Amino acid sequence: MAEVHLWSGLRSLADGKEMVEVPGATVGQVLDSLVAAHPGLEPALQRGVSVAVDGQIVPNSRNHPVDPDSEIFLLQKLAGG
Amino acid sequence: MALDGQKTAYKYIGTTPDRPDGLDKVTGRARYGADISMPGMLHGAVLRSPHAHARIVKIDASKALALKGVKAVVTRADFPDGLDGEDWNLQENCMAGEKALYDGHAVAAVAATSPLIARDAVKLIEVDYEVLPHVTDVDAAMKDDAPVIREGAADFSVPEGLHPNVVRYFDSGRGDLDKGFAEADLIIERSYTTEAAHQGYIEPHACLGQMGEDGRGELWVCTQGHWFVRRMSTAVLGIETTNIRVTPSEIGGGFGGKTTVFIEPLSLALSRKTGGKPVKMVMSRNEVLRATGPTASASMDIKMGMTKDGKITAAHGTFRMQGGAFPGAPVDVTTMLAFANYDIENVHHIGYDVITNRPKQAAYRAPGAPMAAFATESTIDELCRELGLDPIDTRLKNAAREGTRATFGPKFGPIGLVETLEAAKTHPNYSAPLGPNQGRGVASGYWMNWGGETSASVAISEDGTVTVSIGTPDIGGSRASMALMAAEAFGIPYEDVRVNISDTGALGVNEPTHGSRATYASGLATIRSAEDCIGKLCKRAADKWGIDPEAVIWEDGCAKPSGPNAGEFPPMSLAEIAGEMGSTGGPISGHFEDSPAGFSGSFGTHVVDVEVDPETGRTTILRYLVVQDAGKAIHPAYVEGQFQGGAAQGIGWALNEEYIYGEDGRLQNPVFLDYRVPVASDLPMIDTVIVEVPNPGHPYGVRGVGETGITPPLPAVANAVREATGKRICNLPLRPSRVLAAIQGKG
Predict the structure, then answer these.
(1) Per-residue pLDDT tens for B669-728?
(2) Host H or E run for residue B722
(3) Hey, are the CB atoms on A44 and B157 less than 8 Å from each other?
(4) Is B516 within 8 Å of A80 when comparing Cβ atoms?
(5) Is B179 helix (H, G, I), strand (E, B) or coil?
(6) What is the DSSP-derived secondary structure letter of residue B556?
(7) Cα gap B247→B226, rounded to integer Å
(8) Min CA distance, A36 vs chain B (Å)?
(9) Residues 237-266, chain B: which have Cβ within 8 Å of A?
(10) B1: nearest CA partner in chain A
(11) Looking at the partner chain, which of A8, A64, A81 has a beta carbon nearest the beta carbon of B172?
(12) In what order do the strands lie in the sheet with B552-555?
């Protein structure tokens, strides 16, 4: 089970939890598991988030592999100039 | 994540050859957006609202249409209904619907046989407006009595009880703030504001669109990202994305402001309405300043605690940002990066995205980061002054390093903040003597960088040269960087590499040149495409020699047997293989597509000396030093140029640049005479030090360098003015009148 850390604005959508453990072998599967466990997160994830897996930000990469002991952070969607 | 085989010794990387496009650009041969013309071309012009907020009751274009030479008028009625989300925002911003939302908002557009007729026709369009109350200030827009700009614009994140103009809300942090502040020997709280600043690119927006009644067409445009233009323009017009092929022109600056659309869908809509005649549109500077995206303005509250020996124990920031009449102020990034320079256990950020009657903000070089840096780095400077601490030593004590858990969550990989601080401390500028009314300021900054969708091709030409095709427009010398990376990968001279910026019909999707990603992502794709080619070149040699392809290596631009057991054959150069490829299997090319995730952020530290005239309040920059981590500088001169450009723009934002709105909600300074960007005589030579802490996520160690450089100047200059005057000024810009008022105790 991967550890998914939520920024504090998301925690109210996930029963107040800062960290949620969900199954998934890829970023996409983890995000799907997250919504299944906490449907309130769906609007936030649909708006777009960036995902950091073990310190590496992996934007637009639902296929990026996730290990069972991976540390995942959801971050606000990034942009640039 | 380290990539295997990262190079450390280079033949071409790190050299500074002339840029391939240089001669074209200095002789006028390069074609920019307004240089594109076609036979039978019409010229477009836009009618813009003179009101900050007004209901559009009626539009009568009959007199305009009756003018000789006028071929079409479009209004919102010519665009499809039913869009939602950001597509609706784009459509509404390109052409007002029920309401004009800011001074300069497009209300109608005309196509005519000459630019003069088009402009005259615009004046003949009659619009009945019902003028509405307006608000242009972020704090005023959040008050209970502020006019509501658009009901229902807020998303799920906004807590109940906030004004409808608050459209997004962010809240992030960790640790125990109460505990952290209790551990501090000194706590400082300050409120800060920064004004909206425009990217100030030299070239105004320009395009030429042609679209038939079947909804198919082409667009030639000055842009940072033509796939974005294609997607956005077709969404606004309600047609399929690939109905339009988009070709980028050369680009005279963008800095984020050319990653979206303004006139492009209007050009196509006008063309469609004329039955397919090409329509050229070129913005005036007035239009650029009134109706394209500056960056957001900000109002911020910072509270930080520090021990006597300089350890930051807790930090809290509240960031209110307005990005015009639509959601999108970069407060998400502001909150994430506000304290990212430092290792802080107890930290919390709150952010508000607020809409006002101003133009829709667009990205501007490190969008959101400079404002936050101004607030946090000014507060740290004040803590250091109160506690008698050296500003660089204090930053070193708290600096984020490899393994530090960032204030936004994940752990950092290899990063170079400490190295930039150490280099700044030993630089002669940091110990240069200061005179009366002079002061020194220090600040650090960070930008996360970006990878993004990327596609590239490399083709071997029959004359032995190599053609690289990428999809990221060349704004800051990236053709030279791509050519250097291809030369290094192939082992051939830089002069034997050509670099093309392909149109949307020639490559897979490419994100724009934004997020400091071009040298990283297109560079990585160029190297991988070259490696794909090299494999095929080796196979041609192997076929010729009658040996296994695995027994051939590529070295110094030649295919060679891998060792004595592979056989005795003379090396075959790229040119030799290319010269006979037509008869050995046909063309040779390589490709690479990815959304590379190995980008890594860049930290920088700036040191600036200023002199403030106590009689006028005018600030003069005496010395300026930029130290920044480039990972690996592919073309060091262009890396230095990025450092200097970021500093120059940041100095302008700190000292002079601001959007000034009158009580009527109209922009008061929509020309460069009144919107004061720095000119050469305002600036000293900006000194640079390139730090190289290689990024393990790039074959050559590259980090993006384009954006970090604008992050430290705002606080660095403010900190220097603080030392020169003894006054902490928390509101930018530090224009002479504001500084003088502070000196005289009136500010």
Answers:
(1) 999 999 999 999 999 999 999 999 999 999 999 999 999 999 999 999 999 999 999 999
(2) helix B713-725
(3) yes
(4) yes
(5) helix
(6) T
(7) 7
(8) 18
(9) 255-257, 259
(10) A56
(11) A8
(12) B552-555, B558-561, B572-573
Is the Cβ–Cβ distance between B583 and B692 less than 8 Å? no
By the CB < 8 Å criterion, does A9 face chain B?
A: yes
Mutation target among B201, B333, B412, B649 for the A interface, most CBs of A within 10 A? B333
Mean pLDDT of B157-179: 95
pLDDT at B3 over 50: no
Residue B143 CA: distances (Å) to CA of B49, B190, B297, B342, B666: 26, 21, 17, 34, 21
Q: List all residues of chain B from 581 to 640 with a beta carbon under 8 Å from chain A.
A: 595, 597-599
Q: CA dihedral in degrees (B738, B744, B745, B747; nearest 10)?
A: -10
Cβ-in-10-Å burial (0-12, 13-18, 19+) of B578 comes to buried
Residues A33/A1, Cβ–Cβ less than 8 Å: no
What is the spatial distance between Cα B280 and Cα B475, in angstroms, rounded to a whole number?
22
Query: Hey, what amino acid is at B185?
Result: D
β-sheet bridge partners, residue B322: B297, B354
- The 10s digit of each residue's pLDDT in A20-71 is 999 999 999 999 999 999 999 998 898 888 899 999 888 778 999 999 999 9
For residue B85, the chain A residue with the least C-alpha distance is A47
Neighbours of B725 (CB within 10 A): 21
**Contact residues on chain B for A75, CB-CB shorter than 8 A:** 336, 408-410
Task: Convert B608-617 to b/e letters by CB count within 10 Å (16 or more is b).
Answer: bbbbbeeeeb
Cα A60 from Cα A62, distance rounded (Å): 6
Q: Does A16 touch chain B (CB under 8 A)?
A: no
Domains and CATH numbers, chain B: 42-132+205-282 (3.90.1170.50), 297-449+600-743 (3.30.365.10), 451-594 (3.30.365.10)
Report domain A2-76's class: alpha beta
pTM for the full predicted model: 0.97
**Domain residues of chain A, as ranges?**
2-76
Residue B732, helix vs strand vs coil: coil
Cβ neighbourhood burial of B623 (10 Å; 0-12, 13-18, 19+):
buried
Q: What are the residues facing B246 on neighbouring strands? A: B219
